Amino acid sequence: MRFGAYEVVRELGRGAFGTVYEAVRHPLRKRVALKVLNPELVDIPEAVTRFLREAETAAQMRHPYIVDVHDLGTVGDVPYLAMELLDGETLEDRIEREGRLGVETAVDLMLPVISAVGAMHDAGFVHRDLKPSNVFIAQGPHGDHPKLLDFGIVKVQAHDVALTRTASLLGTPSFMSPEQVREARDIDGRADVWSLGVMLYACVTGAVPFSGTSMFETFDHIMHGPIVAPGTRVGGVPAGFDAVVLRAMKREASARIATARELGRALLPYASPAAQRQWQKEFTRGPSLRPSVVSLLRAREPEPTVAEAGRTIAPEFSRVARAVGAMATVVIAVTVALALRGRSPEVQLARAPVVTVLRRPVDPPAAAAPVAPTVDAVAADEPQPSPAPRRRARTAHATERGPMIGNY
User: Fold this and answer.
1) 127 in helix, strand or coil?
2) Residue 124 has what pLDDT?
3) 26, 3 in Cβ contact below 8 A?
4) Is 129 among the catalytic positions?
């Protein structure tokens, strides 16, 4: 069967809004998954808008764990989108086939999905329809490679666009958050965190935590029913994993795990060693692991402003300058002192004449009149007055050793 430029090979699945076929694009012969809006919805503008929104959102999201969209168009009045063709099964099929998954296996499969949801939130989108049937587990060269599908009821956080009359009762009832059930209009990424918590619950127990015989009974359980920990239903579930899932499913959004990245970080200890190595950087980058501790440390040691930094540096600089100045003064003083001590006696006599005495060892002390301390007296070799006691001591010492010329 031909559908525009595509040759339809077989039907892969059918949903409420569209049918997915395996198809081949001519003339490139490229195999794709062709999603076509169901014919009965073609005349409903809201259904067409939702279908086109899915293609637009998926095309904007370039992420290794989000399905790629290759083409978008219409054949007649029927819109279609062409996506990458994946070989494998949905997470819903895996759970039904195996009954339930081990905690490590479930976390390994969900971490890529949580990464994809976090990327959507960073781009300003809220998925609002997270469930196991919207996760496709493709078979890659290194094993399972989950891919997130179906962006038909994505909400753009910056613009509250309603694609139905209320824009609230969208999604699969068992995985809807309490704020979606009560038709809140301020839905944000925490609604997806709730759905991720329910998906983790379903993976390890094989059952959803909230169900009923009707949609309204299911809603009542979501809003008011008891939330039983996964480990209470099945064995082998670590208490820490129970705590993470229950935190993701807090009814009050403000008490819930705040972001998909925070949820992934909390799940890392329960992943396999290989998955921990793969996702450690992804889920530990960005905001601190312990924002409350960081806030406390910042309160104790605030970062200085430029002006405060200048005021802090100025006193330090002043103290250093004073120390350098004092050291320079000492160096100059020492230099001058050494220079003065190293000068010759003639220079010192010329600048500051002093008394100079010449004594012969054989001359007895004389009581002659005082002689002026001049250079002429020294040259004439006239008798000199008896020196003071200090001078006599030095003179006596000189008498023993011979003549001495000294400066006093």
Assistant:
1) coil
2) 87
3) no
4) yes
The alpha carbon dihedral of 314, 319, 324, 328 has a sign of positive
Q: Looking at per-residue confidence, does 354 or 119 come out higher?
A: 119
DSSP string of 200-265, one letter each residue? HHHHHHSS-S---SSHHHHHHHHHHS----HHHHSSS--HHHHHHHHHHT-SSGGGS---HHHHHH
Burial class of 268 by CB neighbour count within 10 A (0 to 12, 13 to 18, 19+)? middle
The token pair that represents 119 in the structure block:
């990327």
Tokens (6 digits) for 42:
């073609």
Mean pLDDT along residues 24-32: 90
Residue labelled with tokens 């699969």: 172
Rounded Cα gap, residues 90 and 85, in angstroms: 13
Percentage above 90 pLDDT, the chain: 42
> What's the pLDDT tens digit per position in 176-196?
999 999 887 788 999 999 999
Q: What is the DSSP string of 319-346?
A: HHHHHHHHHHHHHHHHHHHHHHHTS-HH
CA distance 367 to 181: 131
Q: CB of 126 within 8 A of CB of 161?
A: no
Q: Which domains does the chain have, with CATH numbers?
A: 2-84 (3.30.200.20), 88-289 (1.10.510.10), 349-401 (no CATH)
Q: Of the residues 129, 150, 192, 242, which is catalytic?
A: 129
Asked if residue 11 lies in contact with residue 44, where contact means CB atoms within 8 angstroms, the answer is no
